[in-house]
Amino acid sequence: MHNFKKILLAMGIVVVCFLILMAADFVLYPCTFMRSDIHAISTTTYDDVFVGTSHGKMNIDPETMEEVDGRTGHNLCVGGEYPVDILYMLELMIETGHAPKRVVYEVSPGYFVREKEVGNNYLLFYHEFPISVTKFDYFRATLLKCDFRTLLFPWYEYDISYELSHAQETLAKKIAKDYSEEGFATEKQKYYASGFIERYPVDPSSFEDDEVEEWFPEDIVEKNMQDLSDIIRLCKENDIDFVAITTPLPDQTLEESGEGNEALNNYYSDFFKDTQVPYINFNYNEYYDMTEHEIECYTDLDGHMNGDAARDFSGVLADVLQKLP
Question: Cα(181)–Cα(179) distance, rounded to whole angstroms?
């Protein structure tokens, strides 16, 4: 009997600690725009869902595209989004009954030449998943690699004093189940309900000295390519069209990393040809002249467009995708 009471006490302590951690997570983990994005794609069925990196987030405006092709869409791209994250977000859409008609994957080479960073970045996506089989699978595939803070204290990489000062707003939004775009605008950019982030124009002289990274096919991490193959396979199994694109870069960037970019373009062109899916790189061949590559259209040398240039590009993208066989 004495041992039984000890077991009950221990279980009680574990339950209390768990509840405290859940309460702290509810108060301290901020409402991110990814929370709104995951809610959108798991509760609404779109014609197109755009996945990829920050280039896609800032350069693809689904509302502009819908004006051209009449297709509904949501921009699910974001910086830190690796193929493994896209794989499980696609599985979530399928599980919840909201698989899109088409997935447009914005391929940014930098996310294929390095492994996903172990840590809080995993929570950017996983934390916002509704309870589901996919969330459990995602946990097994990724979160087990993280240190204990990621699971027990998911807010640990955020500024606690700042989050405490905004706790009332965070709580109000979570309690009301408010997934609107309100509260995400800054002096540099604006988030839209479509998932698109508009960056405001920047004086090019402020990033003239930025260093341009250069990668080559031999730098590619095989795990990332395997995850990409799994995404394509999952699309085919569920009758979802798949298109891969690479968004435009400034001419200066293309010149400084020309050899690597060209080698990667050839690598991805061959890969997608082998997997029988379209690949459109707006930095080469007939696609180059369709878009702007002047430095004034960008907010950095990495290829993130300002809002006006992004909308112009989105119109071109919609037109190009319409003409695909």
Answer: 7
